[in-house]
Write a structure and sequence with these properties.
By secondary structure, the chain is an alpha+beta fold. Among the domains are: 54 residues; 151 residues. It contains eleven helices and six strands. It has a four-stranded antiparallel β-sheet with strand order 4-5-1-6. A two-stranded antiparallel ribbon has the order 2-3. Strand 2 and strand 3 form a beta hairpin. Helix 2 packs antiparallel against helix 11 and helix 9 packs antiparallel against helix 10. The radius of gyration is 33 Å and the shape is elongated. It starts with 19 loop residues before the first helix and ends with a helix.
Length: 301
């Protein structure tokens, strides 16, 4: 049997050490398999990229509105007059704040309301939707639920990140349609502002009704003064909520529609490199297997 190095893997000599010449000889022996495998892997990788949908990213940079997202006057004045109010049997509720607004934006409940308000289920599961007939094209028991849509939306499409250092909030949507991606970011910001604005007005109106019903029931002067200040604060809250569309978040950097060639996925360079790498590895293994098979045939001849 031929015992030349070319029929053995490198490092199989008596010392087990590799020399540059041995490595070069081994590489030359399997260069064809390596080159063909790398080329095929590269072609397959690029073909895969061509078939994959383009994913576009839209972002908005938001600043929590400090004037409206601070604890309401009820909460602030509760600390000042809470003791006196408790003596009169009055409970001073507290309002929402910046952290609550951010958590609402991150919440699954908000995502579910956003999906329902914008009828996004057919878009999230467009392969299961018959656009012409405007109905689901799958069996009834396979129709995706809103919970499934929320899972897909929250895990794959939408991200909400807060910079604890600056307090800024970034809302990101990754989607196959670049115009929809930017529009969804804008609509999410508008919807969360509207929900928090409406909630603030409702809370303030209930607080006013409570205060008006209690202010005449107490003769304790400090408590009456505190209540008048609370009434003023709640009227201010209602005024600000009614005149500000950016009640909870101000848009510092609005989302823009990405250029057609400005997609984040697929990454042609990365997938092409990985395809060539794994193709080259497979080509080398195939070449080694072929050489071993030829050696066995010669040995048995």
């Amino acid at each position: 049997m031929d015992t030349h190095f070319g029929d053995r893997p490198p490092g199989s000599g008596s010392t087990g050490e590799l020399s540059f010449a041995e490595i070069a000889a081994w590489m030359r022996k399997h260069m064809f398999g390596l080159a063909v495998g790398a080329l095929l892997g590269l072609v397959l990788g690029l073909l895969l990229c061509a078939l994959m949908p383009r994913i576009y990213r839209s972002q908005a940079l938001l600043a929590p509105n400090s004037e409206t997202m601070q604890s309401s006057g009820l909460g602030a004045l509760a600390g000042q007059f809470g003791g006196i109010a408790s003596l009169a049997g009055i409970r001073l509720p507290s309002g929402s704040n910046k952290d609550e607004a951010i958590e609402l934006l991150k919440s699954r409940g908000f995502a579910a309301r956003f999906i329902s308000a914008n009828n996004l289920m057919p878009r999230l599961y467009e392969n299961d939707w018959d656009a012409a007939g405007e109905r689901w094209s799958v069996a009834e028991d396979e129709v995706p639920t809103v919970n499934q849509g929320v899972d897909r939306f929250v895990r794959r499409l939408r991200r909400v990140q807060e910079d604890r250092g600056t307090g800024m909030v970034t809302v990101t949507v990754d989607w196959t349609d670049r115009e929809e991606s930017a529009r969804w970011v804008r609509e999410m910001v508008n919807q969360v502002n509207e929900e928090l604005r409406s909630r603030a007005v409702d809370d303030a109106e209930r607080n006013l009704a409570f205060l008006e019903s209690q202010v005449e029931k107490t003769s304790v002067i400090p408590v009456r003064e505190a209540m008048y200040k609370l009434v003023e604060d709640q009227m201010k809250t209602i005024m600000l909520a009614n005149v500000r569309t950016d009640y909870a978040f101000r848009v510092i950097d609005p989302p823009v529609v990405a250029d057609e060639d400005d997609y984040i996925s697929p990454n042609w360079a990365l997938i092409g490199f990985l395809g060539a790498f794994f193709g080259a590895a497979c080509g080398v293994f195939a070449s080694i297997a072929y050489q071993l098979r030829r050696s066995r045939r010669r040995a048995s001849a």
